Amino acid sequence: MNRFFSYLLLLTLTLSSFAEAAYRDIPTTSKLTPTLDRLIENGALEGEGFFRADTPVPQTMFWQIVTADTGFSPEFATFETPVPEGVDPTSDEAQYLREAIRRGWLDTEAPYNGLDSIKRSQAIKILVESKGIMPPKLVSSKFRELSSGVSRLAKYYPHIEAAYASGMLKDYQVDPFRPQEELTRRELITWIQQWTENGSKKESTLTPAAQNNRTEEFPYQRRTTTNTGSNSTGISISNTDQGTLNLSNRSLDMQVWDAVIAQIESKYKFSEKLDDDRRADMINAGIAGLVEALDDKYSNYVTPDKSEEFLEGLEGEFDGIGAYVEMIDEKFTITSPIKGSPAEKAGLKAGDVVTAVDGEIIAGQGVNEIIAKVRGVSGSPVTLTIFREFEGSKDYVVTRGHITIPALTLEFKNGVAIVGLHQFSRSSGQDLAKMITDEVLPKNPRGIVFDLRNNPGGFLTAAVSVGQVFLKDGQEIFSVEYKDKNATYKADGDGELSDFDGTMVFLQNKGSASASEILTAMIKDYGIGQIMGTASTGKGTVQEIVSFTNGGNLKLTVAKWLSPKGNWINDVGVIPDVEITDPTEEEKINEEDRQLDAAIQAALR
After folding, report:
1. Range of the structural domain that residue 356 is part of
2. What is the per-residue pLDDT across 467-497, written as a single tens digit (0 to 9) for each?
3. Distance between CA 245 and CA 252 in Å, rounded?
4. d(CA 479, CA 535)
5. Residue 486 exposed, middle or buried by CB count within 10 Å (0-12, 13-18, 19+)
6. Shared-domain flag, residues 536 and 392
7. Is residue 220 part of a domain?
8. Terminus of the chain with fewer CB atoms < 10 Å: N or C?
9. pLDDT greater than 90 at residue 397
10. Does the N-terminal peptide bond of residue 111 adopt cis geometry, omega within 30 degrees of 0?
């Protein structure tokens, strides 16, 4: 591959510099060291004591290494996939196993023992799939001549050929292959290292013009270009005799990509500008454009320089105006102001479109670029030009603050408990259950109002834990349809409010989205309580966050969710049982809340 493209591929590969070897029995000069250091940095290995390279890999270590090497981190797991029997569901091991199960590599019903070893044939099949390498339907005659020790009828034989063709295995490693032997730790690290050095950096010497006349030694061969040698979740490209043109195969467009980079490297007049930072900007811009071309308003790539702010937002603390935003129809739209935030106090509403920041027109700019302009030091002002339907444009001066998003609030009015559900954080379900048990039910409330207005949602796991507070054991909370599998989430035991005999009312508005809609859709299906307010956002999809070693983060739509009755509310929203329009500007100024007042009255009936 030309030097520039190789450089780009390695931009995100970050290896730790250790004065001493991480493991006592692995010298710093060992070929295993770079990959071991990277896996330690990713959290897949502890990096203490002895590695014992020539002993079998226990399954616990194998699944941690393989899933971490795809870019997965247990910190960002958002799925409540069941784990094998005997595994602590709260452990990090469980999160790695959930990811393996979700990808179809591990059967949750099969017996599992983390101390058991794994066969070489099993391991190579999973590694090939984890790197996005497409095995052939039939093993080529040339590879049969090169390899030995494997039955021609073995289902994993094509995976061995694919691993060899992609650079993961070398000649001496396929002759013989020894498929039934236990995989050693040295072999696992070596295969990953060889993929990093060879497979992920191979290039095709074919030009676009030669595509239709090409022949290959291994016609099915898939060469994967990823954001890093460790994370193989990037676009995979391959050459096929059939000339299939899609993202799973090396297409003419991808060859043009290589050709453009080669032209820049060889002919660009101001090549002195192509320092490491500029190259990193170019590849990140390419990745961002790739995701943007999906035309999915909920999928985006967050570049490394913006990732810290992005992750801070997930944890519920940051400096800014305090509003959730999305690019909707190429417009920078406020989907919901955070309760009590500077944005809400300034009068901003869900659905407001920001057209300028401090007088600068933002049309054509990316969402992260605009967010950077809106955010700033707590206490500093920012002027937002807002277009509001039926009202036109108006400037709003917002004084930025340090935003801490409360997940839950509680107050009582007229004997009615008003529970504010403001976001679905990791602990929302447990916190809600505790609040109901310790603070709400002991006061014998005449009714309960759950205020989900402007709740943008959050973690899928929280939707499960919050939903089961209201259900009986075994009742469905919601179901999810992934690309290649389905999952149904059910209550695990009777919820704290499953026997509540008072009236429950659920308030929502246009700013209620995602996990908050999962809750209200479930409530409506079972008739547990009244839904009041306005229609919700209509976000019926699930996103997964993948963090990469260059600091970038991918938020990607991976599934759609359905209510217990199979309803998909996408772009429609949950329709309230009783519609109550949003407060007017005059009512906000006078701190009047017709929606909440009506909900309290309904709860008293």
Report:
1. 317-404
2. 999 999 999 999 999 988 899 999 999 999 9
3. 7
4. 21
5. exposed
6. no
7. no
8. C
9. yes
10. no
In the residue annotation, 539 being an active-site residue is answered as yes
Residue 374's CATH number: 2.30.42.10
**Domain match, 93 and 195 both:** yes
Q: How far apart are CA 283 and CA 336, in angstroms?
A: 32
Task: Take residue 436 and report the two structure tokens written for it.
Answer: 């109901």
Per residue in 424-463, pLDDT (tens digit) is: 888 899 999 999 999 999 999 999 999 999 898 888 889 9
Cβ-in-10-Å burial (0-12, 13-18, 19+) of 181 comes to middle
- Annotated catalytic residue: which of 514, 536, 547, 563? 514
Closest CA to 528 of 594, 488, 468: 468
Q: Cα 560–565–568 angle (5° rounding)?
A: 30
Residue scoring higher pLDDT (1 or 590): 590
Measured in degrees and rounded to the nearest 5, phi and psi for residue 462 equal -70, -35
Q: What is the pLDDT of residue 16?
A: 33
Burial class (CB in 10 A: 0-12, 13-18, 19+), 282: middle
For the record, the structure tokens of 580 come out as: 């109550």
Q: Check pLDDT > 60 for residue 216.
A: no
Residue burial 5-28, b: 16+ Cβ < 10 Å; e: rest: bebbbebbbbeeeeeebbbeebee
- Kindly name the residue from 232, 539, 555, 563 that is annotated as catalytic: 539
Higher pLDDT, 519 or 371: 519
Residues paired with residue 302 on neighbouring β-strands, in sequence order: 553
Helix, strand or coil, per DSSP, at residue 37: helix
The structure tokens 């931009």 sit at 11
Last residue of a domain, one of 369, 404, 439: 404
Among candidate residues 92, 525, 582, 593, the one labeled active-site is 525
Domain limit, last residue, from 201, 234, 249: 201
d(CA 130, CA 246): 19
Strands (E), 329-473: 331-337, 353-357, 360-361, 381-388, 392-399, 401-404, 408-413, 416-421, 447-451
Are residues 551 and 414 both part of a single domain?
Answer: yes
Tokens of 409: 């609030």
Active site residue 499: no
Is 510 labeled as catalytic in the residue annotation? Answer: no
Are 442 and 358 part of one and the same domain? no
Q: What's the domain count of the chain? A: 3
